[in-house]
Every structure is written in structure tokens, then in C-alpha cells.
Design brief:
alpha+beta, five-stranded antiparallel beta sheet, four-stranded antiparallel beta sheet, 7 helices, globular, DNA-binding
DNA sequence: TCAAGATGATCAG
DNA sequence: TGATCCTCTTGAT
């Protein structure tokens, strides 16, 4: 589930397990073998995330940059390592635990300067302190692009993926195809505050829950359900199912190659009254 | 056993 | 806009 909260939780877990420790670093699959050899037996300083980018810092100013893409996984285990299972690109290990990276399109050694470049081009990240949501607003309110597209653009906003996009738009009663330049600043301020709260919760729990207590199936007198991505949501991957609030069929479409989900009644075009 | 699909991003045309 | 990369799971055959 590689949205921003996943990477921030990973950074925290890696720092907790390996921070300040001399670690063994390897690449069982072999594609990161040369770089891993440089890091093997050195001290892992800590890890940090910027949006969907993860940076693991080692001594001597060496950083591993990981991007999980659509299918990558970085699993952290608090048990000593056993034989690698599957295509493990990168393994970090001590006698206390290990972490295995699989499927990531990006796993590379980078310098501090390269990290600064990535950070400079990234939009504000709701999960980092002292971020300026006004930088995102400056792009949104000048753009005729769909808000559903702008929210996913990592140069506009860092860390939001398909699930948070669908759910944030639902919670703010915004149709995903509504142009960014038709939004009011007050709407964006509320959306940013909501993102900070939802994503912070996601880091804590490791899942995406967006349904307000008054809208849970239990509160609405409906049978409980389980979403297969491990979280309680309003519309994401619920196409053809009934909206939890109004009962309309949730719709789906493809926007810029990605699946879009919305409720046609709760999220009418050019209306913005909040669900709350 | 095989193909499709998945919570991303980049590049060529 | 479509192709490509990366891996694993699920469902169809």
C-alpha cells in the first residue's frame, strides 16, 4: 500500500529497529549488490520520508533512495533473518531483525544534494512538519486540470495516492473532474487539514481508514464489511456498491491511466458542501 | 498454468 | 497517450 503514510511508517520502523546500529546489507537478488557491498558492516544512521520517497541514511553521508512504485514492498520483521523468499533486492539485517525490499522500481545510492533536488521539486507533504499548503494552493487555483488529477501530482502535493485521493474528494463532496481553478481557498484549507489528520492516523495504524464514526456500517445499521486493502473507506474500489451515506451506486472511471471512484449523488459537479 | 490487475512514475513519440 | 519497469495475488481456464 505505498502511499505517503506507508513510507513515513517505514522510515519510523527502520529507524527504531536499526538506527545507530551496525547492519548487514545485502542484495540476494543481485541487482543492488555493488552498492550493498559498500554499505555492509556500516552504521545505519536513520531513515526519513518525503512524500512517497524513502531515504535510509548510512554513515559517511551515504543514502539509499527507495521508491516503491505501484507494487514495491519493504517488509520489516523483528526477528532474525532467515533465507530470503522471492526477489529480495535489498536486505538490511541485524541479529534483532531484518527488512526485505521487493519490487521497487527505484533502489539507488544517492547524495545529500540529490535528496535536496527531490525535495525541492516535491509539493508539500502533509506528514512533514512546517509544510506550506499554500504552495499547493498556488498551483491548484491557477489550474484548469481536474482536482482528481492535481491531488495525485507529486509536484503539487507529496504523498497522496489513489486511495487518499478518492476518499478526500468524497469527504469534501468534490467531483473528481472539477477543475482546480473552481475551488475556493477555504475548501483547500479544509482539505489540507483533513489530509494531515487522515495520513497521520494512517502512519499510526498502518492502514487507511476514512469513514467517519457516524457513517460506519454499524452506525448506519448495515452489516459490517471488510475492504480487501485493509481499511474502512467510502468509495475506493467500491464501484457498483452502495454509497454508505446516500445509497447510490459508486461509480468508477479511468483518469490519466488510474482508477477513479466517486459517488454521483454525494459528489456532484461544481458543488462543494462538506459531508461533515 | 496463465493472464490480468494493483495504492507509481518516467520516457518516447 | 501508451509502453515500460518491478513483483505478487487472484481468478479464469
Amino acid at each position: 500500500m505505498p502511499e505517503g503514510h506507508t513510507l513515513h511508517k517505514l522510515a519510523r520502523d527502520l529507524s527504531d529497529l536499526f538506527g545507530g546500529q551496525v547492519v548487514r546489507v545485502g542484495s540476494p537478488q543481485g541487482r543492488f549488490a555493488d552498492s550493498a557491498a559498500l554499505l555492509d558492516g556500516t552504521t545505519l544512521v536513520g531513515a526519513d520520508a518525503i512524500g512517497k520517497h524513502l531515504f535510509v541514511e548510512f554513515e559517511a553521508g551515504r543514502f539509499v533512495h527507495v521508491h516503491l512504485g505501484l507494487i514495491g514492498k519493504f517488509d520489516v520483521y523483528v526477528v532474525p533473518p532467515g533465507p530470503p523468499v522471492g526477489q529480495v533486492r535489498l536486505r538490511i539485517a541485524t541479529d534483532r531483525g531484518h527488512a526485505d525490499l521487493r519490487g521497487a522500481p527505484t533502489c539507488e545510492l544517492v547524495t545529500r544534494e540529490q535528496i535536496d533536488e527531490i525535495q525541492a521539486s516535491a509539493g508539500p507533504d502533509p506528514l512533514r512538519a512546517e509544510q506550506d499548503p499554500g504552495r499547493a494552493w498556488a498551483k491548484i487555483h491557477r489550474s484548469g486540470r481536474a482536482i482528481g488529477s492535481l491531488l495525485m501530482d507529486q509536484h503539487v502535493l507529496s504523498g497522496v495516492g489513489n486511495v487518499y485521493r478518492a476518499e478526500l474528494l468524497y469527504r469534501h463532496k468534490l467531483h473528481p473532474l472539477r477543475p482546480g481553478n473552481t475551488l475556493r481557498r477555504s475548501q483547500w484549507v479544509a482539505m489540507w487539514a483533513d489530509l494531515v489528520e487522515l495520513m497521520t492516523d494512517g502512519v499510526r495504524t498502518g492502514r487507511i481508514d476514512t469513514v467517519r464514526p457516524e457513517h460506519t456500517p454499524e452506525a448506519m445499521g448495515r452489516p459490517p464489511r471488510v475492504d480487501d486493502h485493509g481499511g474502512e473507506v467510502y468509495v475506493y474500489r467500491r464501484s457498483g456498491m452502495d454509497c454508505l451515506v446516500c445509497g447510490s451506486r459508486v461509480r468508477t472511471a479511468v483518469l490519466e491511466g488510474r482508477n477513479l471512484f466517486w459517488c454521483p449523488r454525494c459528489q456532484r459537479p461544481f458543488r462543494s458542501r462538506a459531508v461533515r
